[in-house]
Amino acid sequence: MPTSVDAPDTLTRPFDVAQVRAQFPTLQRTVHGDQPLVYLDNAATSQKPDVVIDRIRAYYAEENSNVHRGVHRLSQVATDAYEGAREKIARFINAAHTHEVIFTRGTTEGINLVAHSLGASHLSAGDEIIVSEMEHHSNIVPWQMLCERVGATLRVIPVSDAGELDYDAYADMLGEQTGLVAIGHISNALGTINPVQQMIADAHAVGALTLIDGAQSTQHSRVDVQALDCDFFCFSGHKMFGPTGIGVLYGKEDLLNAMPPFQGGGDMIDRVSFDGTTYDALPHKFEAGTPHIEGAIGLGAAVDFIEGLDMDAVQAHEADLLAYATEQLQTIDGLRIIGTAQEKASVISFLVGDAHPYDVGTLLDQMGIAVRTGHHCTEPLMDRYGIPGTVRASFALYNTRDDVDRLVQALKRIQPLLS
Ligand code: PMP
Question: Which domains does the chain show, CATH number per domain?
Answer without folding.
Answer: 58-307 (3.40.640.10), 310-418 (3.90.1150.10)
